[in-house]
Amino acid sequence: DTKAIATPKRTREILEKYGFSFKKSLGQNFLIDVNTLSNIVEHAGVTAESGAIEIGPGIGALTEQLARKADQVLAFEIDQRLLPILDDTLSDYDNVRIVHQDILKANVSEVIQDYFHEGQPVHVVANLPYYITTPIIMNLLMARLPIESITVMIQKEVAERIAAAPNNKSYGSLSIAIQYYTEAKVVMDVPKTVFMPQPNVGSSVLRLTMREQPPVQVENEPFFFDLVRASFGQRRKTIMNNLSRHFKDRFDKDSIRQSLDEAEIDEKRRGESLSMEEFATLANVFYRKL
Ligand code: SAM
């Protein structure tokens, strides 16, 4: 694979040819290792029938590997300076379309409808700009897109928080928010040496597989997520303490104690020990009393 974009030599040549300088503010850390890229594409489950959506193609390192495996590739890039470069580096592939847009402002749903075939399995695959990891993932989930999975390189610490289980130190409201919509798994840790320039933080690849149904039944989703956030409000405090503070204008201590009792949750437990199922039961008990 001597002609791949993602080698240190070829990447340097491309950067030099166009006089490109990295913008730290756009999270520009490009991948320079084909092996890492093949692993990402493999974990994403991209096949010859797939549509692939990439966020931030850079100079096309991942885009190229996706173009080789997928039916169609659609990539959103915010940095105008990269457009002529991508035109050049991806000129061999006629199944790639670059959209010059901020992913946080794009109507991804509409673009999927316009560009991919009806019923085509679509996968999001990206080496994300780290400064907006969480908003990008939350936006994709809230848009309820017709996609199968999201496989992304992100900060190691954020990947661990997203995929964490109860009683793990990384478990929190972000774990619940994302696991409500997806099955989350950290599929590999990646060394800094596969990036140019090397990022200051560790990196991991996270795979999110979309669920057809949420794993728990919740009467009111905003209320559920609000209660979850409140339960983790002050990590060292008990669930009783955090909920009393949060609901002080709506419920007195006795009624909070009673609701915890009804949900069969010991008031001395901490938020980090509750499963999503327990949070759902608790939120439903409170919600019915509003
Ligand atoms: N995919 C390339 C690779 O792996 O070598 C580049 C990945 S780099 C970590 C992140 C890319 O996202 C950069 O190309 C950057 O310009 C782009 N980007 C940053 N913010 C963006 C945004 N809001 N919308 C779309 N692209 C963005």
Automatic annotation (TrEMBL):
Q: Where is the Ribosomal RNA adenine methylase transferase N-terminal domain?
A: 36-212
Give the highest taxon in the source lineage: Bacteria
This protein's UniProt keywords: Cytoplasm, Methyltransferase, RNA-binding, rRNA processing, S-adenosyl-L-methionine, Transferase
The reply on keyword rRNA processing is: yes
Q: What does this protein do?
A: Specifically dimethylates two adjacent adenosines (A1518 and A1519) in the loop of a conserved hairpin near the 3'-end of 16S rRNA in the 30S particle. May play a critical role in biogenesis of 30S subunits.
Reaction(s) catalysed by this chain, per the record, are:
adenosine(1518)/adenosine(1519) in 16S rRNA + 4 S-adenosyl-L-methionine = N(6)-dimethyladenosine(1518)/N(6)-dimethyladenosine(1519) in 16S rRNA + 4 S-adenosyl-L-homocysteine + 4 H(+)
GO CC, alphabetical: cytosol
Organism classification: Bacteria, Bacillati, Bacillota, Bacilli, Bacillales
The record lists the organism as Pontibacillus marinus BH030004 = DSM 16465
Similarity comment: family membership: Belongs to the class I-like SAM-binding methyltransferase superfamily. rRNA adenine N(6)-methyltransferase family. RsmA subfamily.
- Which residues are noted in the entry as S-adenosyl-L-methionine-binding? 29, 31, 56, 77, 102, 127
Q: What gene is it encoded by?
A: rsmA
What name is this protein filed under?
Ribosomal RNA small subunit methyltransferase A
